[in-house]
Amino acid sequence: MNLLAELRSRFATALESLDGADLSDMVLPSQDPKFGDYQANCAMPLGKRLGRPPREIATELVEKLGVADLCEPPEIAGPGFINLRVKTARIAELVGDALVDEHRLGVPTATEPRNIVLDYSSPNVAKPMHVGHIRSTVIGDALAQVLKFLGHKVITDNHIGDWGTQFGMIVYGYKNFGDDAKLAEAPVGELTRLYRFVNSLVDYHALRTKKIPEAELAIDQQQLAVEKLSSEPVPEDQKAQKKAAKKLRQAEGLLNDCRSDLVALQQKLVDAENDEQLISVAKEHADIGQKVLAETAALHAGDEENVALWKRFLPACLAEMDAIYERLNVSFDHTLGESHYHDQLAETIASLEEQGLVKVSDGAKCVFLEGQDAPFIVQKRDGAFLYATTDLATIKYRVENWQPDALLYVVDHRQSLHFEHLFATTKLWGEKDTRLKDLELEHISFGTVLGEDGKPYKTRSGTAVGLSGLLDEAIQRALAIVSENDDARAEPLLSAEERQTVADRIGIGAIKYADLAHNRTSDYVFSYDKMLAMTGNTAAYMQYSYARVSSIFGKAGVDRQQLRTSNPTIDLNTPAERSLALALLQFSEALTRVASDYRPNHLTSYLFELASKYSSFFSECPVLKAESDELRTSRLALCDLTARTLSRGLELLGIEVVERM
Ligand code: ARG
C-alpha cells in the first residue's frame, strides 16, 4: 500500500463536501515525528477560501475523515494542522504484506498506467561523447526503470546524432587526410583523429575570419559606450549620480569581459598556430567551413560516395558507443537516430505548411511562436533541414507508431530553448490532432558536470575513449579502497577476484549515484574522492549498508525464504523499530515522487534515509541477541525487508549491490 496516496484519497473524499477536493495534495509526510507520521495543512487555505476559521474547518474535516482503520484519532494542532499517526499494529501488518511480496515489496502499481517514450543518452556519434551524455544515460535509465516498476509502459529510444555535420567533417577529413591502414586497424581512433583535426581547422579559420574580428568589434563598440557614459555631465542629484556611476561601472565591466573574451580567442589562435601539422595545411583548406557543409549536404542528397563512407564509418562509431553502454549496463528498446527520419523531413515541412504555420523569413522557413523573440527555424534558406525538423518528424513517428501519452527528453539544460520551441510548435501542429494535442511533452533538463575548477568537466583526452577511461579510473580507485579496507581486517575476507567485482560495482555505482543524487537541475562538481567516500550519501555507503544488513543472515543461520513465508509477528515496540518499519513502507512514496517530477534524487534521498534509520535500529535493538525468539524473528524480518528494499531501490537506479565488501 502507498500510505500517502491512501491518506490523500481519504482526505479527498472528506474535502469534497467542503469544495476543497483539490487540496488533498497538502497531506504530506511529517518533517518531525512529534507531529505524527503525516500532516495535512489543507484547513488553512480552505478556511481562507470559505471565510471560516481554519481550526473549525480542521475539526469538520476530522469528523468526516474515515481513517479509523489506519490511524490513531487525528490531532488538530496550532492554527489548524491535522496530525496523523498511523496505527503501529497497521504498520506491522503492512510490513508483513511487503515481506511476502517477493518482487514488489508491497509497492502497488500505478492506478492509471501510462504509455511513456523516453528519449535519453542520444549522443552524436563520430564526435567525442562527453560526461553530459553519461548523465543523460544514467538519469534516463533510472527513470525508465522506476516508471516500469510502477507499472507504466516505457519505450526507450536512443535518438543518436548520426546524420549531422560531424559526418561532413569526417567525410571531408577522410577524403583529404584519411589513412586506410589506420582505419582498418583502429577505426574509432582514426575517425576521432579526423574529426578533431578537421574541427580544429574549421575552428582556426573561424577564429581568424570571424570570431576574432567580431570580438574586436565588440570591444570597439563597448569602448564607445563607456566613453559616452563618462563624457556625460555629472548629475546634481545624489541618487542620479549614484545611478550614473553604477551604469558606468557596469559598462566598464562589460568592456573588461569583451577584452578577456578576445584574449581567450587570441590564446586559442596562438595554440593553433603552434600546431605545426595544422598550420602546414591550413592555407590549402581556407574554405573548409563551407566544404564541410557541402559534404554534409551531399550526404543528405544521397551522394553515392558519401553515403558509402557513412555506411562504412557508422558501425565502428556504434560499436564504440555500445561498449560504454555495456559497461554501464544500459540498453534501449530502439536506437532510431536522426538518419532514420531523413526521408520524412520534407513531408514534415509540407504538413506544417498545410496548416499555415510556416512563414518565410530571410529565405528560411520559420514557425513564429507567441511570446518568443526568435522563431523556430525548420528549413534553412539553402534548403537544408535542421535538428528541429528532425525532432518534429520524430514526434510524429513516435506518436504514430507507439501511441504514447508522454514524450520525455533527458537532455542537458543548454537545449531548453530548443525544447520550448519544439513543444510549442508541436502543440500548434497538433491543433486538430488529439494525439499531439493531449501529449505530455517534457524536457527533463539537467545541469552540467563540473570539474574541480568550476568549469565543465573534461576527461583528459575528451574522447569517448576518455569516457571509458573515466569509468576505469573510478574502478581503479574503488579497488584501492576495497583492498585497503580488506587488508585492515584481522583476516582479509575477499579473494582477488571478489575484490575486483566489488570494485567494479562500487566504481560504476559511484559515478551513477553522483549523477542521480544531485538534484538533476543543478550543476555538480565531479570528484572521485567525494563520490567514492564510504560515508555520506554515496553509492559506496549504500552498498556498504546493504552488505552490512545482509551479513546478519549468515550469522543468524536463518533461511530467509522461510522467514518471509512463516508469517512472523512484527513487533514494533521501540521507536527505532517503528520508524524503520514505517520507512520501509514508504518505498512506494519515494518511487511515486520520482515519477511525479522525474527526479531520481527523491529515491537516493529515500534510500539514504532508510539506511540511516536502519543504523539507529541496529544500534538500539539487538537482533541476534534479542530477548526472545519471537523478537529475534521480528527483527530479522525487518532486516530482510531493509536489505531487499535497499537492493531493489539501487537496482532501479542501475546500481548493483554486493553481499560483502
Ligand atoms: N544528439 C543531441 C546532443 O548530443 C541530443 C539529442 C536529444 N534528443 C532529441 N530528440 N533532441 O546534443
Automatic annotation (TrEMBL):
<keyword id="KW-0648">Protein biosynthesis</keyword>
<feature type="short sequence motif" description="'HIGH' region">
    <location>
        <begin position="123"/>
        <end position="133"/>
    </location>
</feature>
<dbReference type="InterPro" id="IPR035684">
    <property type="entry name" value="ArgRS_core"/>
</dbReference>
<dbReference type="GO" id="GO:0005524">
    <property type="term" value="F:ATP binding"/>
</dbReference>
<keyword id="KW-0963">Cytoplasm</keyword>
<feature type="domain" description="Arginyl tRNA synthetase N-terminal">
    <location>
        <begin position="5"/>
        <end position="86"/>
    </location>
</feature>
<protein>
    <recommendedName>
        <fullName>Arginine--tRNA ligase</fullName>
        <ecNumber>6.1.1.19</ecNumber>
    </recommendedName>
</protein>
<dbReference type="Pfam" id="PF00750">
    <property type="entry name" value="tRNA-synt_1d"/>
</dbReference>
<dbReference type="InterPro" id="IPR008909">
    <property type="entry name" value="DALR_anticod-bd"/>
</dbReference>
<keyword id="KW-0436">Ligase</keyword>
<dbReference type="InterPro" id="IPR001412">
    <property type="entry name" value="aa-tRNA-synth_I_CS"/>
</dbReference>
<keyword id="KW-0030">Aminoacyl-tRNA synthetase</keyword>
<feature type="domain" description="DALR anticodon binding">
    <location>
        <begin position="542"/>
        <end position="661"/>
    </location>
</feature>
<dbReference type="Pfam" id="PF05746">
    <property type="entry name" value="DALR_1"/>
</dbReference>
<dbReference type="InterPro" id="IPR036695">
    <property type="entry name" value="Arg-tRNA-synth_N_sf"/>
</dbReference>
<dbReference type="GO" id="GO:0005737">
    <property type="term" value="C:cytoplasm"/>
</dbReference>
<dbReference type="Pfam" id="PF03485">
    <property type="entry name" value="Arg_tRNA_synt_N"/>
</dbReference>
<keyword id="KW-0547">Nucleotide-binding</keyword>
<dbReference type="InterPro" id="IPR014729">
    <property type="entry name" value="Rossmann-like_a/b/a_fold"/>
</dbReference>
<comment type="subunit">
    <text>Monomer.</text>
</comment>
<dbReference type="InterPro" id="IPR001278">
    <property type="entry name" value="Arg-tRNA-ligase"/>
</dbReference>
<keyword id="KW-0067">ATP-binding</keyword>
<feature type="coiled-coil region">
    <location>
        <begin position="212"/>
        <end position="275"/>
    </location>
</feature>
<comment type="similarity">
    <text>Belongs to the class-I aminoacyl-tRNA synthetase family.</text>
</comment>
<dbReference type="GO" id="GO:0004814">
    <property type="term" value="F:arginine-tRNA ligase activity"/>
</dbReference>
<dbReference type="GO" id="GO:0006420">
    <property type="term" value="P:arginyl-tRNA aminoacylation"/>
</dbReference>
<keyword id="KW-0175">Coiled coil</keyword>
<dbReference type="InterPro" id="IPR005148">
    <property type="entry name" value="Arg-tRNA-synth_N"/>
</dbReference>
<dbReference type="InterPro" id="IPR009080">
    <property type="entry name" value="tRNAsynth_Ia_anticodon-bd"/>
</dbReference>
